[in-house]
Amino acid sequence: KVPVVLVADIDRGGVIASLVGTWELMTDDERACVRGYVINTFRGDVTLFDDAIRIIKDRTGMRCFGVVPHFAPARLLPAEDAVALDAGAGQQQTAPDRIRIAVPRLPRIANFDDLDPLNAEDGVEVVIVEAGAVIPVDTDVILIPGSKATLSDLAALRAEGWDIDILAHHRRGGVVVGLCGGYQMLGQTVADPDGVEGAAAAVPGLGLLEVDTVIGAAKTLRPAAGRDTVFDQAITGYEMHMGETTGAGLVRPWLVLADGTDGAVSACGRVMGAYVHGLFAADDFRAAFLGAVRAGDYAAASHAARVEETLDALAKHLETHLDMDGLDAAFA
Predict the structure, then answer these.
(1) Segment among 138-147, 290-299, 309-318 with least mean pLDDT
(2) Average pLDDT for 263-286
(3) Which residues of 79-110 are buried (b: 16+ CB within 10 A; e: fewer)?
(4) Which pLDDT value is given to residue 19?
(5) Is the dihedral of CA 218, 222, 225, 228 positive or negative?
(6) What pTM, to 2 d.p., does this model score?
(7) Is the dihedral of CA 83, 86, 87, 93 positive or negative?
(8) Cα–Cα distance, 183 to 256 (Å, whole number)
């Protein structure tokens, strides 16, 4: 006499008939074990199913423990059985060497032409992550762009929960790049003691690079040329920023310029940032960077880690949309 909860996949169609028909075909002993049902993979406004819940209640007496909205990241989980093979038949498959670069749309984003050379590359998908959306779990590179107001955009990034997404991406083995203001955000602290951008403040950064930035009134504007330290490829571009960055992380610079060094690379080699804009316009550097991502040289997110992250997100999704107290009581 094991308690049973039926789970009906509305995405397959005929869910009301499926539940009512199953109830009608069960014996009295089998019905006695049933505690209720769950509707799975609902697309759209779940309140549209309210009338159906009443119909099922009238026909069977069964209790609904929740209507679970469609959870898109579930596609990243291993298929449970051969049915998944049929579901995928005829669908276009993503190229195995495709690179996805996610860029959070900061409210005061600047110099977004840094993305143009990446957008133009075959096999590269640049995803602009809008407010209210999460950074896709299957992202290879997160690029934090320049900002006209670093402290304000860092606060906006945190308000969107993107800081959590970025840190999770890094834990999974993903690559994180910061340009100018994005580079400042990757550090341990960002301070504006003189209130150049607004009210004077000092806040923690994302903590992925061992650097600290102090925003100042002096603005740096100059051309830049040199080589990157990872692939030893030539780059050109320009600096346009306010602030001075210091810290132990500068012993591993990302760029060596004619008049010094710029930026930092993390000890793990998967986080890098610099003030120079336009470096991805350098063809050989861009090819080397993308080639390393494609080949897995940056230790891009492992399959096992990605599955674990998706399962955690699915658990939170279910907790949000199911009557967990009711389910606990049903199986007590």
Answers:
(1) 290-299
(2) 94
(3) eeeeeeeeeeeeeeeeeeeebbbbbbebeebb
(4) 97
(5) positive
(6) 0.64
(7) positive
(8) 16
Residues 6+ apart with CB under 8 A from 74: 310, 314
Residues marked active site are found at: 180, 277
Residue with tokens 């049902």: 37
> Long-range contacts of range 78-87, CB-CB < 8 Å, 24 or more positions apart?
78/307
Length of the chain: 332
Domain boundaries, the chain: 4-77+311-330, 99-283
CATH class in words for 99-283: alpha beta
- Spatial CB neighbours of 226, under 8 Å, sequence gap ≥ 6: 234, 235, 255, 256, 257, 258, 262
b (16+ CB within 10 A) / e for 151-185: bbbbebbeebebbebbebbbebbbbbbbbbbbbbb
DSSP H helical ranges for 110-258: 116-119, 150-159, 162-171, 181-185
Strand order in the sheet with 4-9: 4-9, 34-42, 64-69
